[in-house]
């Protein structure tokens, strides 16, 4: 079959031409027939259903009415002129209002003649009217109808409407498109897949998604197109993964030796959770296979990911390699460094900390020791990624809070060795729902710690309005009196850093007034402070010198001060669920009951109120992640931006969850038995990749 027609420039399509092609390109990024075939309607109007004038209820959807023009008149009101057409059926009268093309329309509407009006009603003075509806004589309406009972409704932009490219006009164009492409759309899925999943053909799907012949065919078309979209996405992930595994040899860590064992038997003061043990095993299996590991480690806040990472680094050391731990902020890097040196005290392991603030002499020292192999574990920020940082032999790189690093940065770690790339373990700050992880990090292997260490007391989360601030101050005094410490966090909204900082400073001022020296000590930390000042303040808080830490979200990640039992979040309505959860995870780390107080303004939007309610009702990060996904869509979840889930045209990661899994399983199966897609059965799949994906990504396909 010759499907070259679908790659034709859209301007050649009947009803388009140069001028409209330009608009389509600019407004919808539609430049070929194919682009328009994949520009799907978001709704359909059943053309056999006509609403009666009396029965118009809603002003937010397109409807059609059959009736007569009763009268027409042009009204001038100051400078504006409009045409008001009285229109009605046997049940009542409505008005059609036009602001543009008055004469043209006036001349074409005959009083007493029957028309079909199509559009979105709007409410004015409690009456419905139509602003610039489509209107067509009833004869031509029924003649022009193709064999579909449904009229597609497309979203269009204001600019398109101004150029008379409204949804109706677009529908005419897509009808031409479908007619021209009929019989020329090549199948993309192998027959065995189409059969097995009982799918309809691509040709039929694309025709029916625009002009459904029946509701049944419409849902079959949707299913097929969603499946295809998800399947190719998953197939791409699986291909990348399998290709990389095949190609990328890894260091073989064959043994667990002295460092690991003495840490485990002497230094570790508690027992690992079952989940931690399982995950360490999974990672160890990767690291002793001869392939390079690329694994994602998920776990709720406080589930002990860092410890798992540390133990895996020790395995690297036992096999004669170095390890690195990369953190997104200096505070976090510093803290990882402290807790790792603590954990390892008494063991003969050399740990160093590298951040951009490190002075040049010390830095020089670190760099040369690292290159000579005298440093076993390096902890640090982006500073580690710099080219001047060279390793003797980097065996394992752990990237904490993966979403804060770009793909390029991850690949920088890959290139730190001249021999083989190190094993890579990336960790997320808060859980991501499973289906999303499959998609966003689909090319990584996946481990999850789904269990918290025993004895954690659930954090008590409370929502209070700003007007209750005095009650909050009282509560803070109580807690400070019994020796606890408190965080107060202000949101950072990147749009206006100055204003954000002002909020924070105002907050700090009122806190210092309420909690004055010498009785109370208050610290402040924000992103614009120098690293050493931040560290100084953090340390004072850590050591218990200060009672209250006023901060922006810089403290959000990983900070660990067990004696802090109260987290107060100002303007909590401005945070997403996962960020709130991450902040809340800063407390509840010690033996005492902890509290999280969500402060908000009085009148919350429905969505904010829902989020706050959910926060108060659960401490489970996996539940929250799922809710966040359902509430705000994948775009709100950290790390999704580069993944392509946001570009999905028809499938929905949330609503189509079962389909995501099916697509994933199928892709997995195919790549396992036919990694180069060389079986005749998979010829179409291979063709798809050759056509759509750059070759170097899949150099095995040739
Ligand atoms: P995460 O990075 O997953 O948020 P951490 O690794 O910071 O969690 O662990 C949180 C705290 O729990 C740390 O103080 C850590 O030492 C402690 N911890 C980790 N694993 C266990 C365990 N199995 N039992 C008790 N405490 C643990
Ligand atoms: Mg952590």
Summarize the structure.
With 702 residues, the chain is an alpha/beta fold. The chain has a seven-stranded mixed β-sheet with strand order 6-7-4-3-2-5-8. It has a seven-stranded parallel β-sheet with strand order 12-13-11-14-15-10-16, sandwiched between helices. It is globular.
Share in helix: 40-55%
- Please give the radius of gyration in angstroms: 31 Å
List the strand order in the largest sheet: 6-7-4-3-2-5-8
The ligands bound in this entry are:
adenosine-5'-diphosphate, magnesium ion
Largest sheet: 7 strands, mixed
Strand content: 15-25%
Shape annotation: globular
| Helix run count | 24
Uncertain segments: 695-702
Number of strands: 22
Mean pLDDT: 89
Task: List its salient traits.
24 helices, alpha/beta, binds magnesium ion, binds adenosine-5'-diphosphate, disordered C terminus, 7-stranded mixed beta sheet, 7-stranded parallel beta sheet
Give an overview of the whole structure.
It is a single chain. The two termini are about 20 Å apart. This protein is α/β, with parallel strands linked by helices. It contains 24 helices and 22 strands. The protein is globular. Helix content is about 40%, strand content about 20%. It has a seven-stranded mixed sheet. The chain has a seven-stranded parallel sheet with strand order 12-13-11-14-15-10-16, sandwiched between helices. The structure holds adenosine-5'-diphosphate and magnesium ion. Adenosine-5'-diphosphate binds near residues 299 and 306.
